[in-house]
Write a structure and sequence with these properties.
By secondary structure, the chain is of the alpha+beta class. Helix content is 43%, strand content 18%. The protein folds into 2 domains: 74 residues, Phosphoribosyl-AMP cyclohydrolase (Ubiquitin-like (UB roll)), CATH 3.10.20.810; 89 residues, Orthogonal Bundle (Helix Hairpins).
Amino acid sequence: MEPKYNDQGLIPAVAQDARTGEVLMLAWMNAEAWQKTLGMMEAHFWSRERNKLWRKGETSGNTMRVMEVALDCDADAVLLHVIPAGPACHTGERSCFHTHVAGQTQDASAGFLHTLDEVIHDRKSNPKEESYTSGLFREGLPKISQKVGEESTETIVAALGESDERVVCEAADLIYHTLVLLAARGLGLADVEAELSRRHK
């Protein structure tokens, strides 16, 4: 199915975090932006203000890796499921929809694993000297893999003879280091979720 563009040759495109479901931004696409997005699986839009094509993050580095592209039932709106490399909004906010007007806000604890995954990827792209995560990336995949092995063993030992609290702590360490390993390979939590979803079907 092809998009149905408006009289200006544009179609609205919503970018949604593939990991959390959070709506990140609304922008516009023309035919060229549509083709670039499909061809590169990276979000491209048409700037009405500058009257030019733009790749999301081309100056800020806050790109959006596209996991899925969908059209609505009338084919006159686009939905992009994306993995953002940083804040979606030019203000530095995670989402452009950060101005609360009415109703209840989402529980801040929801989707924390996705938040952690995002922080880990940020530490890879923007290393910080004092960051343990950045230090792991500096040491490389062999060290990260070693840590996953150590934490796996410690989780098993805890499960077989230690308190529930220790099991939870060791499992948390294992999950964290596994996310670091995935990031080191250019992968993320969304890739694991997609595989689990495929198996469920």
